[in-house]
Write a structure and sequence with these properties.
The protein is α/β, with parallel strands linked by helices. It has helices at 55-62, 83-90, 98-101, 168-183, 202-205, 209-215; strands at residues 14-17, 21-28, 33-40, 46-49, 67-71, 93-96, 110-111, 117-120, 123-129, 138-144, 147-153, 156-157, 160-161, 191-194, 200-201. The model has no long low-confidence stretch (mean pLDDT 97). It has 6 helices and 15 strands. It has a 7-stranded mixed beta sheet. The longest helix has 16 residues, at 168-183.
Length: 217
Amino acid sequence: MSYTGDVEVGGGPDVRELPGLAITKLAVGPYDNNAYLLRCTATGEQVLIDAAAEPERLFGLIGDGPLSRVVTTHRHQDHWGALTAVIDATHARLVAHPDDAEALPLPVTEPVEHGGTVRVGRSTLSVIHLRGHTPGSIALRYDDDGTPHLFTGDSLFPGGPGNTWGDATLFTRLMNDLEERVFGTLPDATWVYPGHGRDTTLGKERPHLPEWRERGW
């Protein structure tokens, strides 16, 4: 069956096989978080995006393959509830933005900034800093033969940007970053993998940018 990205807590994962990277999506925990395991198809090296919850289920995804890094997209605890267990078991390096590092339960061993990169074997993820939901929220971009794949944490969902709690300054900052660093540079075909819920594409969301600005959330 083809990949849909429709997963639910307690259910199985969904897997997308790209030429250079395999993406496995799993829903975990009481807040229906998405965890993504990325595996380089050439080397078998793996990277986990958001060790959110249910470490035993995450270990089932990781299997015996080497896990080199865990990327934490932002500081909120529902995205790192299983982080200590996963890193203790795998000795993977922890990747996060410095602006969110102090809130994490373990030291960040690979800090990343906007424009930086994260390696997955022979593949490369580009780091996009999206300020607003938290100071150090990041998205990760992978380019597959010209079609980008974007892991957005809690900064972009189907239907709008991440929560900024009614703070007009934070909302404007996040919208500015999304319009400049995501919608302003990536094509409609870009597939979006959010931190909760179903996937989307930039093409589906782009027509609604003025609505989001108008409503303020």
